[in-house]
Amino acid sequence: MKPIIGITTFEEQSKGYHTVKSTYINAVFAAGGIPINIPIIKDEEDYETYVNLVDGIIFTGGLDISPLTYGENPVKEINLMSSRRDEYELGLFKKVYEMKKPILGICRGSQLMNVALGGSLYQDINTQVQEALGHAPKSMEADEFFHWINIERNSQLYEIFGKDKIQVNSFHHQAIKELGKDLKVIALSEDGIIEGIQGTKEGFVLGVQFHPEALSPRYPEYLKIFEELITASKKNKSS
Ligand code: MN
Q1: CA of 177 relative to ligand 1 center, distance in Å
Q2: How many angstroms separate the alpha carbon of residue 24 from the centre of ligand 1?
Q3: Is there a catalytic annotation at residue 211?
Q4: In this predicted model, what pLDDT tens digit does every residue of 106-126 receive, in sequence order?
Q5: What is the domain-level CATH number for residue 162?
Q6: pLDDT tens for residues 134-179?
Q7: What total of structural domains would you count in the chain?
């Protein structure tokens, strides 16, 4: 049986949708998993029910995470936030982490993992990181490479790509600042922005600041990130 992969979504209240980009869903199918979209959950008990349903989970990209979640007030460059989504994903993370199911965080998802484990974020790298290079090109296709990242040798990303540096896309103005508990940095861009993290304990806990789901149709190498999640989820299912 193929493993079931939960995918976090967001609520477009004005349109009345629970939604997520189809590239995440397509990547899970392409890598051999069965995707399930998880709507915004309000009831504590329902978190556990959803986490029991899935063999692994993807925390997806999206809006800024509210700095209130890590004890700061917003800088003026913060624009879109959703406390509903923050609450839901932080609650879901807590459960899925406790239950030791494989976790992949993408962009906002990687930042979410960090905040959930007690870390903090640069609210806006352009104003808060001196000499930051470009990370948020406007009007660029999602499957275009934008910058290099350097990968640590002893890491899941090195196991996946077998390379010290790769090119990635980049659509973020926030980034990880102080690292959360039981996480390590596994990839950096030239300007020192954290582009990859993984858990230091046993189990699959991987976060990337770029968007492999958008790159993989054009560059199949990037699908391997999803294949690794699915392999780990299969193992988890059978053990
Ligand atoms: Mn970047």
Answers
A1: 14
A2: 19
A3: yes
A4: 999 999 999 999 999 999 999
A5: 3.40.50.880
A6: 999 998 999 999 999 999 999 999 999 999 999 999 999 999 999 9
A7: 1
